[in-house]
Design goal:
It comes from Gymnopilus junonius (Spectacular rustgill mushroom). This is Thioesterase domain-containing protein. This protein has six helices and six strands; from the N terminus they run ααααββαββββα. By secondary structure, the protein is α+β, with helices and mostly antiparallel strands. α3 runs antiparallel to α5. The N and C termini lie far apart (about 70 Å).
Length: about 220
């Protein structure tokens, strides 16, 4: 199991550019699954990038405990002819992740679902893009549907996150994440979301000659 937080143990003082420094081979070897090393490295890197703001960032207290156990490529459940990416993570629930009722807070669950599923979709885009795919960026959430199956556990419990890409078509993609109570092998919550690729920046448009003439006339 590999924690992005333990690898960059001086986070968040680390400049963003340093996130892309080579990751030690023993760290990569500890992540199970049949995905290429470049895809496993991208999963580790993006969990780190999403924590760039450190403890002032949203749900950092939850994210820093995430352990990446597996990154795999597998046949899509709905379309065996298509490949899907799967990320399996694990973390132990701590008191600072819990709400006033003493259970894992909805905000922690939402952030885990959002980030895990989004990274799995990004990895799928990288696989499809092939060479040069490492330059792709994470998408922008458009819709998210959450379905609760059971109450979340409290401190000391372990949960497992299973995130999968579902489909990609053009700039649109779909992905999902399941969160399980590891000890009781009980499904807690399922989340699916649609994402769009971020739009590219536009060059400032030059003012038309008629508008320039009007401004000169006013002067």
């Amino acid at each position: 199991m590999t924690s992005w937080y333990k690898h960059w143990n001086h986070w968040p003082c680390l400049p963003a550019d340093n996130v892309f420094e080579p990751i030690p081979p023993e760290v990569m070897a500890s992540i199970a699954g049949n995905a290429p090393l470049s895809i496993k490295r991208a999963a580790l890197t993006w969990y780190g990038l999403l924590a760039i703001r450190g403890d002032v960032g949203f749900e950092y207290a939850t994210r820093k405990h995430v352990l990446i156990k597996e990154v795999s490529l597998e046949s899509s459940i709905d379309n065996p002819g298509k490949v899907s990416t799967k990320i399996v993570c694990e973390l132990e629930v701590t008191p600072d992740m819990c709400d006033e009722g003493g259970i894992l807070s909805p905000w922690s669950l939402y952030s885990l679902i959002d980030e895990g599923s989004a990274i799995s979709l990004l990895l799928m885009r990288m696989v499809e893009a092939g060479e040069g795919g490492e330059h792709l960026s994470i998408g922008v959430s458009q819709t998210m549907n959450i379905f609760f199956h059971h109450l979340a556990p409290g401190p000391g419990s372990k949960i497992t996150l299973i995130s999968r890409s579902i489909s990609t078509r053009g700039d649109v993609g779909c992905c999902k994440c399941e969160i399980w109570d590891t000890g009781k092998h009980r499904l807690i919550v399922t989340g699916t979301q649609m994402q769009m690729m971020p739009s590219e920046g536009r060059e400032p448009q030059k003012e038309s000659s008629s508008r320039q003439d009007l401004q000169k006339a006013r002067l």
